[in-house]
Fold:
Amino acid sequence: MVNITNILISGIAISSLYALVAIGFTLIFGVGGVFNLAHGALLALGGFTSYFISFRYGLSPILGLVGAVVVTGLVGGVLYLQVIEPVEDNTVAVLILTLLAGFLIQFGFGIFVTKQTISIPQIAPGSVSIAGTGVQNNTIFVFVSSVVLMAGLFVLVERTDIGKAIIAMSMSEKGASLVGIDQRRMKLYTWMLAAMFAGFAGVLLTSYQTGQWNMGLQPLLLSFTIVVLGGLGSIKGSIIAAYLIGFVETITTSVVSSQLTGVVPLSLLIVILLVRPQGLFGRGVDTDV
Amino acid sequence: MPRDSGDTRDGTVDRRDLLRSAIAGATTVGIAGCRSLDAAGPAGTGNETGPGTEVPNDLFKGETLKIGGMWPLPDDYTIGRDAQRGAALAVKEHNQSSNGVLGADLKLLNRSTDISPAASRQNTRELCLDEEVDVLNGGFLGQSYKLMMEPIASTQTLSYFSCGASVPVVEKIASNYERHKYNFRSIGNMAQARDAELNFLETAADRMGWDRIAVFTENLEVYDAVADPLVQGIRDRGIAEVPIAKRTSQSIIDWKPLFDQAEEANCDLVCANLVLTGMTAARQWGTSERPFDFGGIHLLAMAPDFWEAVGRVSPGLWTLNMGAFDSQQTPQMSTMQDRFKQEYGYKTSAYSCFCAYDAVNNWVEAVKATGSTDPEDLIPYLKQRTWNGSILKPTLEYYDEDAQYPHDIKWSAPDIETWNELGFPPVIQWQGEKNGEARMETIAPKRAAGGEYKIKKTPWLR
Structure:
């Protein structure tokens, strides 16, 4: 028997997580027009930072989360300034360098930290009952934080000068220069913001399942799928794609076959691209709601 | 000894080979039908030479016998790491004994299978052809080992499949015995594990209140021998109802939908047979404190670092294993654990460690008994021998070529009473912590658990 409430709750939870995983990837592409192949490694960096803070040193998981966001933001900034900026006009070079950076970061964890599985305490332990169904507080935290962060991102790009500058750059770098936007600074902010999102998502992923030094690969593939499915550079598209994938995956697992879980994202991608090659909302950074 | 062409070694025959052959031939005749003698030497060597044979103690004096190790990601993966360490411990023990192996030292040459069929085959070729090892030890995934069997066959190298339980591997041996007779296993196969799991479920169902069991089995070839037959067995033996039985993807990161289904079906136990997704499943079961027990053939839960890796949230999780920290399945098990701890600073529960350790001792005993490293001499001996030096079970014998599982360990416990007497395989349960340390208990069968079942209900279900 199919329990709609459980499917709804599971779908929302996993979709929220997927949206957080992919949003940083979308930002970079929207502004810079490049795929940041170090995105998965930044997710892993978030997970490992939180592991150190909350597990190894026994501090609060909230501190672990904050620390992860700060650290990944800084690393994202360094990555842009030292690695990406010198070659940012060369798309291939950016791809290669971000790929290498991602490998270095992850292999660094494996060599200098551990190759064994890590886990971190839940941000919000315990559970509540919603509509007669037990729901973990951690699940609620994932959903609420996803909504808050997406809303915050929307406010940022729609209502702040920085956000408008980011949108302007995604439309036309020349035009943005002409109106006096400091592109270097905006790109730096974008990379840092994207990395912070990745760090946040990495913490949630690690607390949800467990983590490993090479945990970034699968989320990277998922992010790529979501971004392409949603439309390159479209934040709205990425969020909707994440929810589409999350719900179809949940329904597939619950109703069709649990063996098919892994093929859902790519299958959806193929289907959508055949019908709409530009993705659901393909254009630059676009927050039309 | 001359070998086939293709993946071959140098075909020269020397005096050492002739002498060994003569001794081995006499030994094989002499021990046909012989039974075991008392154990001696490093934990788990067991038999000495059979009656009527005289193998000189210094037959291999000054030589080095090479063991090729094929471990699953020993740098990344506890199962692989502890398998390598188990073999290394056995090698060290023999090298430190008064006479080594008939005067020879052992040398362990390690490679990783990379959990990749191609890498497994390539590394096996290196060990067999370039390094000319005397025996192989290891192998993990069945798909990989089946590829390893080709260079093994071509070079006629004896091999102990010590980290994998795949049934298709032994089916390949049976399909072309003469070509693949060089392969033996030092671990039970998955069909045997399934039967043991059924014994445990039948033992525990009443005392634990398992009237309705959900069975989730990861969609890997190795578990084909478990998935449907286990469900059928549970029903046929009247153990419980099985309202849900599913094969699960290796890509699952959210177990909530499946756990929701088990909960909706009022299941008392989720019997989960998992490899790659085991950590995630265990963690999500533990953090959500589901109203059912959880256990099965759970590979990652066999590892000693499972408790920490999963965040200390899965008290009550049980799994079949080959050994454990405190298992009393054989006297040699506790000796081996003490020595392992002395060497590496911790006790292990990784099944692969026990099996890799046993494989070294298994082979050494055969070499000592036959005075030969030639597989043509060892194979007949191994097929006829009853070995009482195994750390896994009190006596160890192999099925011959006519059996359903040729060259697999003879291991059958058709009823619970026999299983209790045999003490193998043990079932372990993570039971929280004691004095800040993870507590893994051997809970069944009775011999392994110290005379009585020790299974406990999951804490939040008590």
